[in-house]
Amino acid sequence: IEGYVGDGIGKLVHRVITNDRDQEAAPDLWEKGFVFYMKYYRDHLSDFTRPYSETEAGLALLKSLGIPLVVITNKNEILAAELLKQLGLADYFSLILGGDSLPEKKPSPLPLQHAAEVLGIDPANMIMVGDSRNDIIAAKAAGCLSVGVTFGYGDMTLLSQDKATKPDWIIGSLPEIYENLQPKKA
Fold first, then answer.
1. CA distances (Å), 71 to each of 21, 65, 78, 169, in order?
2. Which pLDDT value is given to residue 138?
3. Rounded to an integer, what distance in angstroms lies between the CA atom of residue 41 and that of residue 20?
4. For position 186, what pLDDT does the model report?
5. Bridge partners of residue 146, in order along the sequence
6. Residue 94 confidence (pLDDT)
7. CA 161 → CA 133, 136, 146, distances in Å?
């Protein structure tokens, strides 16, 4: 299942039913699977989900700089917001955008452009941190700096081999972003 994650719950359900990344299940079977998955997932959101190591420390460091933080996920917005709340991370974020928040989701640049507009900043002054192909492509298309993480679902070593999915930076923990934003001492 891990290899099927990244394009939203609807696609995940198609992939699990067909056991193929590109096939679509019959509409009636997909609908049953989708309804079942949504109910189960909603009821068990944080049963087996934990933040990656040093996530909260990294978020706190970035927040201390006065940087607005945004979650842009292909997960449904209501589930993403509830999961962040259950994990005790929701208060770090100024905005949470899900795959159903706008007409397009990652890899479209629209969610990043929307976040920039809401926050009143130029996308060139944003950093998109992610673990997937969709994250890097969306960042590049929006004109943001792309930061790939070595933890998560994506394989940054593999993604870095393709110009289209090579991030500008690769980090092993969120505090590294804070360290990279600090003025260099001569």
1. 25, 17, 12, 19
2. 98
3. 21
4. 63
5. 128
6. 97
7. 12, 13, 15
* Distant-in-sequence, close-in-space partners of 96: CB < 8 Å, separation ≥ 6: 70, 71, 73, 77, 80, 81, 84, 90
**Nearest residue to 136 via CA among 170, 174, 103:** 170
Q: How far apart are the C-alpha atoms of 1 and 110, rounded to whole Å?
A: 27
Q: Which domain holds residue 12?
A: 2-43
Task: Compute the distance between CA of residue 79 and CA of residue 140 in angstroms, rounded to an integer.
Answer: 27
Instruction: Tell me, yes or no, whether 34 and 76 share the same domain.
Output: no
Q: Give the global pTM.
A: 0.88
When divided into structural domains, the chain yields a total of 2
Residues of the chain by 3-state class (helix, strand, coil), percent to 5:
50, 10, 40
CATH number of the CATH domain containing 105: 3.40.50.1000
Check whether residue 9 and residue 67 sit in a common domain. no
Which two tokens mark 57?
Answer: 């420390």
Spans in the chain with pLDDT lower than 70: 186
Q: Considering just the CA atoms, what is the radius of gyration of the chain in Å?
A: 17
